[in-house]
Amino acid sequence: MTAPIRTVPMTSAHAADVLRIYQHGIDEGNATFETAAPTWDVFDAGKMAEHRFVALAAAAPAVLGYVAVSAVSKRPCYAGVVELTVYVAPEARCRGVGNRLLSTLIASTEAAGIWTINAGIFPENTASLVLHERHGFRVLGRQQRIGKTAAGVWRDVVLLERRSPLVE
Question: Smallest Cα–Cα separation from 32: which of 149, 151, 161?
């Protein structure tokens, strides 16, 4: 039986674990174009503090994964649109961590009046695509050869969005 998972707001106390999980996702090669996790100050400044969470095992303080959002624009007309990032530690995959994190994030953003969550996912990251679709995201399209990796390989990105049925 899988141990219970709880989500709590992300704080600087989680910084080392969050950045370690992010770096592992970078190293795997199917999560982001980034080549190195930023400092905590840079990460912290780029994410909306009220909509970022970590998943913890109920019996231990170790971070199993995290989810956070960034504003897509400073223009007032886009105040209800954010872009998400979600990462699960390798040792915590297939345990419902991603589901718990996305459920928590969706509840948080809807309560705050956010009407759209965007995501950009490499097409090879099928687990992430399935997770997002399970939570009501729909595929908008595929950006072909939108960016190059550090090794010079062009990559496509699948664009997804979740429009809240609760926020008008």
Answer: 149
Name the stretches of the chain with pLDDT < 70. Answer: 1-3
Question: Strand pairing partners for 116?
Answer: 81, 163
Residue 97, both tokens: 């961590």
Q: Give the bridge partners for 119, in sequence order.
A: 160
For 62-95, the pLDDT digits (tens) are: 899 999 999 999 999 999 999 999 999 999 999 9
Q: Among residues of the chain, what percentage have pLDDT more than 90? A: 89
Q: What is the spatial distance between Cα 3 and Cα 6, in angstroms, rounded to a whole number?
A: 10
Rounded to whole angstroms, the Cα distance separating 57 from 55 reads: 7
C-alpha to C-alpha distance for 160 and 50, rounded to whole angstroms = 22
74: Cβ contacts below 8 Å, ≥ 6 apart: none
